[in-house]
Design brief:
- There is one protein chain.
- By secondary structure, the protein is of the alpha/beta class.
- The protein has two domains: 224 residues, Aspartate Aminotransferase, domain 2, CATH 3.40.640.10; 138 residues, Aspartate Aminotransferase, domain 1.
- Helix content is 37%, strand content 16%.
- The chain has twelve helices and 16 strands.
- The two termini are 22 Å apart.
- Bound molecules: ligand T4K.
- GO terms for molecular function: pyridoxal phosphate binding; transaminase activity.
- InterPro entries: DegT/StrS_aminotransferase, PyrdxlP-dep_Trfase, PyrdxlP-dep_Trfase_major, PyrdxlP-dep_Trfase_small.
- Keywords: Aminotransferase, Pyridoxal phosphate, Transferase.
- Belongs to the DegT/DnrJ/EryC1 family.
- This is DegT/DnrJ/EryC1/StrS family aminotransferase.
Length: 385
């Protein structure tokens, strides 16, 4: 048996900037006496990110969830929103908090993104938008979704929590749809510890979002709408400015690790690498496999448990399906038979350790472990007895 790792290997590790550089930013914050409420660091990061991502408008938030929640609010959506059951709970919880009803659409078996070909049949008179997720950093079929939305006069919002800096057909990914949310959580390729942003094109949304994230305060004496506190503070913004300096290096390191995983895993029966559609880019946010029990000889859950003995701790992103949340049990679109692909994938996915600090040797060893744990067909018969 391959010897277990000495220390635990997690699904990810945050990107840390140079400590001395961050400390220098902190000194500036200390001198300025401004800790939050649209200070200098906030203004600078907003500008730097808009430039880096080539966004017409970009607004910062205290986290990705509040960015999405308030983005949906700013668009004034009503009724039903077609979305995916295969996502982090935040996506659909943002609909709940806006009194919008999710209509769950099944997913594509290759990318695990919403299946664009199944959206149209779910549109009703109540539908106001499509909320799609670029799952694991692999882009949705943005052009197909745009055509459907144009035909039926629907808004399109992307949960782009996983697609920082990704392009589709030579354009920044937020070019597609009315609005894209980015998450800058510690576990994301680009982080501000906690944080998020909205990228959008319509000018009138800029002031609305500024108001929504700051209690609806127009000035010290006028409250013009019902908002929330969703502001990014100066320490977060300064962290982001330093992480932005190293994010390209991080992406390149992950690119190299992905190649190593691919080279080894393609030879192991029953492990499918979740990929982008032909020709589409990936953000290198997660490296995800699907475990086919018949060919691999173990279920995903058995593999997950076995990896723990080697001190390897992947994650079952995204398990459970959002459509299985108890409060959706009466929704027709949440019924298990309506979502066969999502239902199968949710039992098979495993997000493997994937972050720049992980060494080449560690990835090779993880692949060796995956090979060691593969059970040959004749062994499977004995194993299951
Ligand atoms: N939409 C989608 C599609 C999302 O995936 C997410 C968030 C959102 C929306 C919401 O965006 P935010 O509001 O979060 O900006 C993590 C993250 O908390 C969450 O941001 C992320 N998606 C989700 C996929 O993963 P957990 O509960 O799995 O995280 P946790 O704490 O178990 O961390 C995973 C591993 O990372 C740990 O085993 C060790 C490592 N880690 C983590 C942290 C926080 C570290 O080494 N250091 C750290 O500081 O949710």
């Amino acid at each position: 048996m391959i010897t277990p790792f000495e220390s635990p290997i997690f699904v990810t590790r945050p990107v840390f900037p140079d400590l001395a550089d961050y400390t220098a930013q902190l000194t500036e914050i200390w001198d300025s006496k401004q800790l939050t409420n649209n200070g200098l660091q906030h203004k600078r990061l907003e500008g730097e990110l808009a430039e880096y991502l080539a966004a017409t408008h970009l607004k910062l938030f205290s986290n990705g969830t509040l960015a999405l929640l308030l983005g949906l609010k700013a668009l004034g959506l009503k009724g039903e929103v077609i979305t995916t059951p295969f996502t982090f709970p935040a996506t659909v919880q943002c609909l709940d908090w806006n009194q919008l009803t999710p209509v769950f659409c099944d997913i594509d078996p290759v990318t695990l993104n919403i299946d664009a070909d199944k959206i149209e049949s779910l549109i009703s008179e109540q539908t106001s938008a499509i909320l799609a997720v670029h799952v694991f950093g692999n882009p949705c079929e943005v052009e197909k979704i745009e055509k459907i939305a144009d035909k039926h006069h629907l808004r399109v919002i992307y949960d782009g929590a996983h697609v920082f800096g990704t392009e589709v057909m030579g354009k920044p990914i937020h070019h597609y749809g009315d609005m894209t949310m980015y998450s800058f959580h510690a576990t994301k390729l680009f982080n501000t510890v906690e944080g998020g942003a909205l990228a959008f094109k319509e000018d009138h949304l800029a002031q609305k979002l500024d108001l929504l994230k700051n209690f609806g305060l127009l000035d010290a004496e006028q409250v013009v709408l019902s908002g929330l506190n969703a502001k990014m503070n100066e320490l977060q913004a300064a962290m982001g400015r330093e992480v932005l300096k190293v994010v390209d290096v991080e992406r390149e390191k992950r690119h190299e690790l992905k190649k190593i995983y691919e080279a080894h895993l393609n030879a192991i029966p029953g492990l499918r690498i979740v990929t982008s559609l032909e020709g589409a880019a990936s953000s290198y946010q997660y490296f995800v496999i699907e475990v086919d029990q018949d060919q691999y000889g173990r279920t995903r859950d058995e593999l997950f448990d076995a990896l723990a003995d080697y001190n390897v701790f992947p994650r079952k992103y995204f398990y459970p399906l959002c459509s299985d949340f108890s409060w959706y049990s009466r929704l027709e679109s949440a019924q298990p038979e309506k979502l066969p692909v999502a239902r199968k994938s949710v039992q098979q996915v495993l997000s493997m350790p994937f972050y720049g600090e992980l060494s080449r040797e560690a990835v090779e060893k993880i692949c060796g472990i995956l090979k060691e744990l593969h059970v040959e067909k004749k062994e499977v018969l004995n194993y299951r007895k």
